[in-house]
Amino acid sequence: MAGDAELAMWGERVPAPATTGITPERYSPYPTGEMSDGRLVSACAYAEIPNVKLSRRRLFTATAAVAVVSMWTAGIAAGSNRSPSTAAVTISAMSASATSVPAAPDFATTAFSDPWDYSNTDDIHFEEPPQANSVLWHGLFGYDTAGTYPWFDPLPYFPGSLSQERDGPTHPIDADYYTRVSFYMYSSQSGYGGISWSTCDWSKDAACQGQMGFATYAGWHLYVLTPKPDQATLPAPWSGKLLSLRIIPIAAKPGTHIVVDWLRVFHPVASPVNFTVPVPTPGQSVTIMLKATGHQSFTVPIESVHTSGPTVTIGFDYSPCPPDSYQLYAVGPHGAVGAASSALNVTTPPTPIVDSPNAGGAGDLAAQTIGHPWDFSSMASVGPHANVGGLSILPGGVLRGQNAGPEINNPFIYLPVKPFSGSDWHHLTVRVKYDGPFGITGGPTGGAVGRLIWYNASDLERDDQNVLPIILYPGWNTVTADLATSPPTAIVDPTQKSARIGWAGQTITKVRWDPNEDESGRVWYIDSIRIAGDPVGYGGATIMFHDPNAIAGETATAYLTTSPFGTDNVGSSYPVPVKAGSNSLHIFAIHGLGGRECWVRIVVNSANGTATQWSSGQIRIVS
Q1: Could you read off the pLDDT of 391-411 as tens digits, one per residue?
Q2: pLDDT tens digit string along 409-422?
Q3: Are the C-beta atoms of 604 and 578 separated by less than 8 Å?
Q4: Distance of alpha carbon 599 from the chain centroid
Q5: Which of 304, 374, 521, 552 has the most CB atoms lying inside 10 A of its own CB?
Q6: Which residues make beta-bridge pairs with 532?
């Protein structure tokens, strides 16, 4: 499989603690291996950015389809049994202006204020059956491959479904800005994998999909790719707005253990960091090693330097690397190891998160209209139902049920409610889960989608309205949706047989929840369902926010804007200092908004850079 990537070898990863309960074979705590010529090297491959120009020869070369590894200096990798010489080779410390640099812009960090570092469940969906035995563990995402194409989706997109907060249609990748991809991954086998993306509804037009293959190597490897399509049937270029991103770590090798440490879709920095390397003997070669010394731990050769002068300056492009502390050192002839440079700190940018307003809205329809929320602390939250069996309330207030006949793939429960305004109450939040594997192909275990269905007074409850299918993944799902769309029918499934009317502007008379569409006795659970309204601000808005990476001297300014991800200003705040934990500030609105819905845009500045983030929900401003 062809791919625009060049490969070099990265270094040994520190073993995982033995107390984790995860088998050493699966997580390969000793990732070293042998090259085909028998030389021992560490088994981390780095697909280097192909467009970077260096005046000296690269340490490794590659063909477009299969990496051909060559090494200028043998026996330098961690794990080599060569005894290093006592002769010292030093590398000078960098200048003070380069001791700290901001990390290259990363899509997930910018879009979500949360990088794809697999530190929390928001970073990945478990999608069995292509994944088996999926697990998140101490910042690692691991699974066993199942089937021919055992993908994982950093940015999901299922055409025809409700776009959730971290789906591509909600947060598309600007591929003209974020031009490269890096990820640090372990595979128990070598083979071929691929990266794919789409720019439109790929279920209708394969021409809007692109795919590029890459060689997968056994052991821990860091892959850095410049995506370009290499299949005629999937020709879409990496450009414009990408609605999906899919990684296939290795194809056609079921049972392969895969572990991903982190993934970045990044914009490369304009200038590398320069290091001056003293050469002990002109005319000899030295190898420059990169060592991560922070929360990561690896050592990697990045360049071989051959010069006739006493010193040489090299440029280290740190763009693929996540925030961490890095050092460079040199290895000379016969394995002489030099002193490490002073640390280069690749810093984390501000990562503001607007806590309120948010997509969940404010208030509770059920609590206001029937006197208690739909929290399933008792059967009072359950109305008429059909095609369900074994309903029971579990400790803690969770409804358990199971699909049953006569229509086993159509279980539903009505939620007790009185007629209400869809324009006033339109923020939906559900927290649900199910037993068994993920599947959306239909049939038994293939209906992992939930639906909200409602009836309107305007047509005398004649035409049931079906929300777009809600994809539900294994584990607890917390899904939010704004049902008051423009046009109102945008939230309604276009495949429904009845007339599409929508939610906004309607008086809603009945509401029901369909937990799945499986043709099996699927067991499912409902923790809570809530329909809320907009929060209201009088003359402005007091917002809550936090930055999990706040540093001293950080400040924030917030604005009101009239659309999601908007850049117009209809209100602003004074700058405020940002402290660890929860923060608040007040935005003063302009006059004349007259009950208009507004979103919040917050801009945070620190010594590590500037970041902008938006609220996930709106607030109604009353002048």
Answers
A1: 999 999 999 999 999 999 999
A2: 999 999 999 999 99
A3: yes
A4: 23
A5: 374
A6: 427
